[in-house]
Amino acid sequence: MRLTAEQKAEIIRLKRGGMGYRTIATHMGMKHPTVRSVCQRSGLFADNPAHRAMFSIPEPRYSIALATVKPLPPHQIITTYY
């Protein structure tokens, strides 16, 4: 089933109004993946700074301190065999 331009515009309007995918789908009588697909393909909701900040990977931090090796435990001589 192809959506008309009016249906797509209504989905976008409801999403901008703060409704969720499932609520819009129930309201319009369609499945929620269809609503999500329309919203994602529109590209209108892609640039969300709060969402980007929540899922961004922080820059790696490097240390300028030299790596140190842990000292070995004292050597033990074992002379007996069991």
Identify the notable features of this structure and list them briefly:
82 residues, Helix-turn-helix domain-containing protein, 45% helix, mainly alpha
Helix-and-strand structural type: mainly alpha
Overall radius of gyration: 29 Å
Average pLDDT works out at 85
Poorly predicted runs of 5 or more residues: none
The helix count comes to 4
Portion of residues in helices?
Answer: 40-55%
Encode the helix/strand succession as letters: HHHH
Main beta-sheet strand count, sense and barrel state:
none
| Distance, first to last CA | 81 Å
Q: What oligomeric arrangement do these chains adopt?
A: single chain
Gross morphology: elongated
Number of strands: 0
Fraction of residues in β-strands: under 5%
Describe the structure.
This is Helix-turn-helix domain-containing protein. The protein is mainly α and 82 residues long. It has a domain at 7-44. The protein is 45% helix and 0% strand. It is elongated and about 90 Å long. The termini are far apart. The mean pLDDT is 85.
Topology:
Elements: H1 5-16, H2 21-28, H3 32-42, H4 49-54
Helix pairs in contact: 1-3, 2-3
Short description:
This protein has 4 helices and no strands. With 82 residues, it is mostly helical.
